Amino acid sequence: MPYKADHALSLLTRAQGLGRMAHAYLISGPREAGLEDFSARVLGLVSPAGHRDLDGWAQEGAVILRPQSKSRRISVGDDATEVGTIRYLERMIHRTTAPGGYKLGIIVDAERMTQQAQNAFLKTLEEPPARTLLLLLSTHPDQLLTTILSRVIQIPLLPPAGVRQFDEYEQKLLAVLQRLSSHTSGSIGSALGLKTDFQVVLDELYDVIKEEHDEEFDKEKEHYAQTTDGTWLKQREEEVSAQIEALYLQRRDAMMDLVLAWMGDVARQQVGAANLDLPQYQHATARLAEQWQPEETTKRLRALRQLEQHLHTNVNEGLALEVAFIQAFGR
């Protein structure tokens, strides 16, 4: 069950007071939940330094890893002197101590650890130095290995009420939906145009995900080319392809959730509901609420929900989008 930040912190404060503080926590939630700010408050439970952000804690001996390079991945590292890698964390966690005597390690965007990095990190999770506190921060905890999830206490956080942020691709999709409400919709042509715009956003998203993983894989090939045979390379290539596909499907699901939230707000405005999923766009959804009859909106929502279900089967993505968008945004 997700917690509000203050409630979660009170539970941790109680655990610390009773001497039951665990050595490893996974703090998860959407970007709006402020995972880094919350983790800085957690560190204050074991150290008197009391910094409000992780940069301040880094000056006190906390070892903080963030995704590195263009690929935005956290790797194992070639050796323990390579900053920002798991081997660097393993080395420094034994050498540095924050005020209060605790050794502090924080991995930001922990889901960005490569599979090899996650496996390497298991050793630190299983055998941490005495008086160690490890915090993993993640907006996508489902991408972490089950072996890691089983060795941490999970703290899912709720975002503050009324706060929601969007990444680059979500913003592009919202711009597409805004254009929908700026003119009278209904033709098959406009529905197919909307489908094309949506597909472009998905294609861009896939390309970025693939580029990130391919860059990391190229580094691995260079490193292991002289020490492993072709069997390992083929197996690893299949693993990378599966990771790319899994991450893309997850992001595509998030995009579909956004479309459903948009259409849901149209329906909510038609019945005078006070709470909207996307209050920042209430003027745009209100225009659609005026254009469509409530029964029309219900049918359109049903078509989008069916699309969401179909996308979890082996259906052709492009064809499924085309049919559903005609039903949802055409007459």
Question: What does it look like?
Answer:
With 331 residues, the chain is of the alpha/beta class. It folds into 2 domains: 5-156, Rossmann fold, CATH 3.40.50; 168-329, no CATH class. The chain has 12 helices and 5 strands. It has helices spanning 5-17, 35-43, 54-58, 86-95, 115-126, 146-149, 168-181, 188-224, 230-270, 282-291, 294-310, 317-329, and strands at residues 24-28, 63-65, 103-107, 132-138, 153-156. The protein has a 5-stranded parallel β-sheet with strand order 2-3-4-1-5, sandwiched between helices. Helix 7 packs parallel to helix 9 (230-270) and helix 9 (230-270) crosses helix 10 (282-291). The mean pLDDT is 88.
List keywords for this structure.
Rossmann fold, 2 domains, alpha/beta, globular, five-stranded parallel beta sheet, 56% helix, 5 strands
Largest sheet: 5 strands, parallel
- Kindly provide the radius of gyration, computed on alpha-carbon positions and rounded to a whole number of angstroms: 23 Å
**Order of strands in the sheet with most strands:** 2-3-4-1-5
Question: Which residues sit in consecutive blocks of at least 5 with pLDDT less than 50?
Answer: none
Q: What is the helix content?
A: 55-70%
In brief:
With 331 residues, the chain is an alpha/beta fold.
Topology (SSEs and partners):
Layout: H1 5-17, E1 24-28, H2 35-43, H3 54-58, E2 63-65, H4 86-95, E3 103-107, H5 115-126, E4 132-138, H6 146-149, E5 153-156, H7 168-181, H8 188-224, H9 230-270, H10 282-291, H11 294-310, H12 317-329
Parallel strand pairs: 1-4, 1-5, 2-3, 3-4
